[in-house]
Amino acid sequence: MLKKMSHWFAHYTQLTPKVPTKDNKPKQDKSDLRVGFDYIRAQGPKTNVNNQQTEWAEIETHRSDSPLYGWSAGLVKECLRSLSTGNVYAKPDHKFPLTLHDIAGWFLDEAIAMCFSEYLILKDGVESEYSPGFRICSSLDQLRGESGLKYRPDILDDGDSSSIPVTKLKSFLDSSLVETHTVERWTAARFVKGQLRILCDNKVDEDAEKDTPEHAMSVKFQTFMEMTAPAFPEKASSQDKMACYKRAHWIVNMPGAIYLRPAGTSKDDVRRIPYIGGVTDFISPEGHEILGRLYDGITEPPENWAT
Question: Per the count of CB atoms within 10 A, which of 25, 49, 228, 302 is most buried?
């Protein structure tokens, strides 16, 4: 009867369970992802010489027993590329057990930076988000890998400030702006308001101190400018120098004394602090013990450190 009806047809369909494929692979949980990223950091090639990173990414994402099996090869390559470029930037240092207790006098480097970092973290109640630390390097270019943080001071140490353009010096030294940038290769280094920034330079004019009496408690501002002149670019004008004096506190370590000038535009006499008893070492004997451990690669404080 059906065959005699017009426009009649029959359709046959067979339903079978779909076989799982790599494309519909169950989503990994966060712990599996963490294992994968840890694997990239530990085992991934650090450079792409001879196409190492590209080959490694393709092989690992297709090897069934790899933690990266099923991952996007593009994601793995991006992670490897980030690890490669990250090697040229300044890394945060969170272990520096030298404290103010270990300082015998003025000390303008890592200890002060670590103190500022911990103070600001505790003051703003962000202990769960940040750890005390600092970045230290000899070039502004090495600070472009990551933005500056209020809770992590940046130290430009052993750099030649006389070779740094004045515009960059003024930007780096001014922590009152909401944010500031210095133009570096292909990108910029960024610093934020309230962030401690320290610049250490060895260039001073020791002859400028020769006529200063041994027990003098101050010197003329012009004398101070002569002492610090070698730290500026050769073509820096007096206005450029004043712009830097205005933005930063200056501590100048000379053979006969320490000179301290607060930030500002004043041309008043600059405070002079003679060395007590001729002792010019800023670090106490206990501090030297800790520094010795750091030089040996031991970042943990000694057992009696807390006492």
Answer: 228
User: Using alpha carbons only, what angle is made at residue 265 by residues 261 and 267, rounded to the nearest 5 degrees?
Assistant: 65
Q: Tell me if 126 is assigned to some domain.
A: yes
Give the C-alpha separation, 149 to 190, whole Å.
9
Q: Are residues 268 and 300 in the same domain?
A: no
CA–CA separation, 177 vs 57, rounded Å? Answer: 43
Secondary structure letter of residue 113 according to DSSP: H
Q: What are the residues whose beta carbons fall under 8 Å from the beta carbon of 188, sequence distance 6 or more?
A: 144, 181, 182
- Given a contact cutoff of 8 angstroms between Cβ atoms, the answer to whether 163 and 233 are in contact is yes
The arithmetic mean of pLDDT across residues 251-280, rounded, is 87
Checking if the pLDDT of 277 tops 80, the result is no
Full domain range(s) for residue 129: 90-202+281-307
Q: Up-side HSE of residue 300: CA atoms within 13 Å toward CB?
A: 3
Residue 14 lies in a domain: no
Sequence-distant (≥ 6) Cβ neighbours of residue 212 within 8 angstroms: 219, 223, 256, 257, 272
Amino acid of residue 120? L
Mean pLDDT of 31-37: 84
Q: Say if residues 232 and 161 touch (Cβ distance below 8 Å).
A: yes
Do residues 135 and 93 make contact, with C-beta atoms less than 8 angstroms apart? yes
Strands (E), 201-283: 218-219, 250-253, 257-261, 270-274
Do 158 and 292 sit in the same domain of this protein? yes
Question: Quick one: which of 131, 177, 138, 176 has its CA closest to 154?
Answer: 138
Confidence band for 208, pLDDT divided at 50, 70 and 90: very high
10 falls within a domain? no
pLDDT digits (tens, 9 = 90+) for 236-245: 999 999 999 9
pLDDT surpasses 50 at 108: no
Asked if residues 116 and 153 have their Cβ atoms less than 8 Å apart, the reply is yes
Does one domain contain both 97 and 185?
Answer: yes
